[in-house]
Automatic annotation (TrEMBL):
Chief localization: membrane
UniProt KW Metal-binding keyword: no
Alphabetically ordered keywords of this record: Membrane, Transmembrane, Transmembrane helix
Record GO cellular component, one term: fungal-type vacuole
Species of the source: Purpureocillium lilacinum (Paecilomyces lilacinus)
Protein name listed in UniProt: Uncharacterized protein
Residues spanning the membrane: 40-58, 65-86
């Protein structure tokens, strides 16, 4: 069930002091709570795909392609870890910047 992002807005509180109890979702980085389960699934998937990509990439492709692919998987993994952090606390600045 979708949560109304403008429910219980309190603009008197400084943004870094907000929690789900004191502020609304519209004051967070997103207007919704990211799914914990879905983001955990994709974080595990991209984490596991780094290994075969590295093996196949370094054996059969040019070095630049292999390194670029692995860095791409690492950045995807970091993005999903940040979204997992935001699913618990949508006001977490570190999760947003990841």
């Amino acid at each position: 069930m979708a949560r109304d992002p403008y429910e219980n807005c309190n603009y008197d509180i400084v943004g870094w002091k907000c929690t789900l109890d004191t502020c609304c979702l519209a004051q967070s980085s997103f207007n919704y709570l990211p799914s914990f389960g879905g983001n955990l699934f994709f974080a595990i998937l991209f984490g596991l795909l780094i290994i075969p990509q590295g093996v196949v990439g370094f054996r059969r492709k040019p070095m630049g392609y292999a390194v670029g692919s692995i860095f791409g998987f690492l950045l995807e993994l970091l993005g999903y870890i940040g979204r997992i952090m935001l699913s618990k606390d949508p006001f977490n600045g570190m999760g947003f910047w990841m």
